[in-house]
């Protein structure tokens, strides 16, 4: 190692140069990912190749250790992000080819709450890869999101469906039972709950706290330690922050995202207040027409079904899925309105709707269920990290 001494300004200048080089290389790598997708159109190969990804990571880890003294965990974390980006880029490219009629210069998107709500953040995240300009339509309740899309005033709706801390969002599941809309996409967003207010005060000085009911549930352990605080609900976390801004009182706070709080001139008072450190919400994207999914892309199929009241009816349906090797990632039951003691089951499956196995399973399920409807087949946006042994 050289003994040459550099000034802080010289070091910062060199770091800036290296960062620019990294950005240039990442941009070039992204372009090559699109070229890979183009070649797969010709060969009909699937987007993901697990053995290829494993070989790549092992090679990078070994080279990083031997040539550059880089830690294996650091390399793995970095390239998991790069591989995920590459997979999603390739999926987006193949989906554009599969759905030429869906390619519009802009998309009208309905979501819950004002700008800065988690649904708004999810909308922007999902459509950031779609090369579309967004017209953002905020709604006050979930039913309004669905109706805005059903009426044609919006092209898409974004709805939260479940959270790792508070569980399923039943109101949205109930909406799916009656809507004519289809699920065309999904997104999982990390939820970083923060207490925000108009000024930096001690927690003991807070008298009133605004938020959506879901964050109240997700932060229940933290809230139980706040004595004498009134909890008030709003249509969304963004509306809660907007309310705090309007009231402009130091003793009133909101639960929301810290970066969204800045939109309303609020500052963070306490971060990491959720019950679980790994707090994520899964959102679904709905539209009036189903989307075509390239068979080269990992896909999910969501369906709803009701079974007879006879013992073992649900098990019989699930055994059909097992027989065809279809993995179920979610099973949720909700009461059927107007039919006491009867339930509708929502099922998420790791399977392409057009696959032979899925089609055969649907034929059998139709025969043994009272009601069966496919809510949608859509690309799996959650890219599972490639597994390699670190050691």
From TrEMBL:
<dbReference type="InterPro" id="IPR036263">
    <property type="entry name" value="Chorismate_II_sf"/>
</dbReference>
<feature type="domain" description="Prephenate dehydratase">
    <location>
        <begin position="108"/>
        <end position="288"/>
    </location>
</feature>
<dbReference type="InterPro" id="IPR002701">
    <property type="entry name" value="CM_II_prokaryot"/>
</dbReference>
<dbReference type="GO" id="GO:0004106">
    <property type="term" value="F:chorismate mutase activity"/>
</dbReference>
<feature type="binding site">
    <location>
        <position position="40"/>
    </location>
    <ligand>
        <name>substrate</name>
    </ligand>
</feature>
<dbReference type="GO" id="GO:0046417">
    <property type="term" value="P:chorismate metabolic process"/>
</dbReference>
<keyword id="KW-0511">Multifunctional enzyme</keyword>
<dbReference type="InterPro" id="IPR018528">
    <property type="entry name" value="Preph_deHydtase_CS"/>
</dbReference>
<dbReference type="InterPro" id="IPR001086">
    <property type="entry name" value="Preph_deHydtase"/>
</dbReference>
<dbReference type="InterPro" id="IPR010952">
    <property type="entry name" value="CM_P_1"/>
</dbReference>
<keyword id="KW-0028">Amino-acid biosynthesis</keyword>
<keyword id="KW-0456">Lyase</keyword>
<feature type="coiled-coil region">
    <location>
        <begin position="8"/>
        <end position="35"/>
    </location>
</feature>
<comment type="function">
    <text>Catalyzes the Claisen rearrangement of chorismate to prephenate and the decarboxylation/dehydration of prephenate to phenylpyruvate.</text>
</comment>
<dbReference type="InterPro" id="IPR045865">
    <property type="entry name" value="ACT-like_dom_sf"/>
</dbReference>
<keyword id="KW-0057">Aromatic amino acid biosynthesis</keyword>
<feature type="binding site">
    <location>
        <position position="12"/>
    </location>
    <ligand>
        <name>substrate</name>
    </ligand>
</feature>
<comment type="pathway">
    <text>Metabolic intermediate biosynthesis; prephenate biosynthesis; prephenate from chorismate: step 1/1.</text>
</comment>
<dbReference type="GO" id="GO:0004664">
    <property type="term" value="F:prephenate dehydratase activity"/>
</dbReference>
<dbReference type="InterPro" id="IPR008242">
    <property type="entry name" value="Chor_mutase/pphenate_deHydtase"/>
</dbReference>
<comment type="pathway">
    <text>Amino-acid biosynthesis; L-phenylalanine biosynthesis; phenylpyruvate from prephenate: step 1/1.</text>
</comment>
<keyword id="KW-0175">Coiled coil</keyword>
<keyword id="KW-0584">Phenylalanine biosynthesis</keyword>
<feature type="domain" description="Chorismate mutase">
    <location>
        <begin position="2"/>
        <end position="94"/>
    </location>
</feature>
<dbReference type="GO" id="GO:0009094">
    <property type="term" value="P:L-phenylalanine biosynthetic process"/>
</dbReference>
<dbReference type="InterPro" id="IPR002912">
    <property type="entry name" value="ACT_dom"/>
</dbReference>
<dbReference type="GO" id="GO:0005737">
    <property type="term" value="C:cytoplasm"/>
</dbReference>
<protein>
    <recommendedName>
        <fullName>Bifunctional chorismate mutase/prephenate dehydratase</fullName>
        <ecNumber>4.2.1.51</ecNumber>
        <ecNumber>5.4.99.5</ecNumber>
    </recommendedName>
</protein>
<feature type="binding site">
    <location>
        <position position="49"/>
    </location>
    <ligand>
        <name>substrate</name>
    </ligand>
</feature>
<feature type="binding site">
    <location>
        <position position="90"/>
    </location>
    <ligand>
        <name>substrate</name>
    </ligand>
</feature>
<feature type="site" description="Essential for prephenate dehydratase activity">
    <location>
        <position position="281"/>
    </location>
</feature>
<feature type="binding site">
    <location>
        <position position="86"/>
    </location>
    <ligand>
        <name>substrate</name>
    </ligand>
</feature>
<feature type="binding site">
    <location>
        <position position="29"/>
    </location>
    <ligand>
        <name>substrate</name>
    </ligand>
</feature>
<dbReference type="InterPro" id="IPR036979">
    <property type="entry name" value="CM_dom_sf"/>
</dbReference>
<dbReference type="Pfam" id="PF00800">
    <property type="entry name" value="PDT"/>
</dbReference>
<feature type="binding site">
    <location>
        <position position="53"/>
    </location>
    <ligand>
        <name>substrate</name>
    </ligand>
</feature>
<keyword id="KW-0963">Cytoplasm</keyword>
<feature type="domain" description="ACT">
    <location>
        <begin position="302"/>
        <end position="379"/>
    </location>
</feature>
<keyword id="KW-0413">Isomerase</keyword>
<dbReference type="Pfam" id="PF01817">
    <property type="entry name" value="CM_2"/>
</dbReference>
